[in-house]
Amino acid sequence: MVHAWQWLLSLVFIVQMYLMMLLMGIAFAPWALVDRRGAFAGIRTYCRWVRWSARWITGLRSEIRGPVPEGGVLVAAKHQSFFDIILLCSVLPRPKFIMKKQLVRAPVLGWFALRIGCVPVDRGKRGAAITKMLKDVAAGHAEPGQLIIYPQGTRVAPGAEMPYKAGSGALYKQLEQTCIPAATNVGLFWPKAGILRSRGLAVMEFLPPIAPGLSTDAFMARLETEVETASHALMAEAGFRKEER
């Protein structure tokens, strides 16, 4: 009975979440059309609404830990569900993502993503995708912001293993910017697929910065170790044990 009630609350939450995406998208579109600051404001307002409504409708609380990055940095984040995108965009001043090309066609979301400078790539052609990604990032590099990449390239469920891809290292080397690793446990409460949103505390944690100048191999090894270690710690804090799943 409790599970069924939580599922129903989750359904209500999801319906209103997408309805508010449409309404806020319409409300902020005129400002966003003439000034990119309007797009950032609309996205930030929407993401804060999602965090607030998730707490009050489903009991899913959320928390940001660590200093929030500002200025031109590369953010390499663990990706477990749509909710970690929400958390990042609710606090970062000028976020832009390395995103899969198909999302450009998504109603509302796709247009706002392009408006804030997100970089679409075709993940089906890995080598060409990385080359195009680097060119696109370089072309927009004059505009400072927090460029977000998911090193594993896709959402990874808690407890699952997936290698870190070369794109993060290529960006780190070309941009010569500080990289901020980010860990999370959101997949325990907001899964990759399905309706149910569970009660608990979802955390996005910004980790100590990695300064530019490391070799690509050294950077990738450090990034994976720090993000995976911190993410496992956050999941353990929430009561997750890999052998239980």
Describe the structure.
The protein has 245 residues and is α/β, with parallel strands linked by helices. The protein has one domain: Glycerol-3-phosphate (1)-acyltransferase (3-Layer(aba) Sandwich). It is built from seven helices and seven strands, in the order ααββαβαβαβαββα. The protein has helices at residues 2-34, 36-58, 82-91, 109-115, 126-139, 166-175, 216-237, and strands at residues 60-65, 73-77, 95-100, 119-121, 146-149, 179-184, 200-206. The chain has a seven-stranded mixed sheet, sandwiched between helices. Strand 3, helix 4 and strand 4 form a beta-alpha-beta unit. Helix 1 (2-34) packs antiparallel against helix 2 (36-58) and helix 2 packs across helix 3. The longest helix is centred in the first third of the chain and has 33 residues, at 2-34.
Biggest sheet features: 7 strands, mixed
- CA gyration radius, whole angstroms: 18 Å
The helix/strand order is HHEEHEHEHEHEEH
What is the overall number of helices? 7
What's the CATH H-level homologous superfamily?
Answer: Glycerol-3-phosphate (1)-acyltransferase
- Report strand %: 15-25%
Order of adjacent strands in the largest pleated sheet:
1-7-6-2-5-3-4
Blueprint of the fold:
Layout: H1 2-34, H2 36-58, E1 60-65, E2 73-77, H3 82-91, E3 95-100, H4 109-115, E4 119-121, H5 126-139, E5 146-149, H6 166-175, E6 179-184, E7 200-206, H7 216-237
Parallel strand pairs: 1-7, 2-5, 2-6, 3-4, 3-5
Antiparallel strand pairs: 6-7
Helix pairs in contact: 1-2, 2-3, 5-6, 6-7
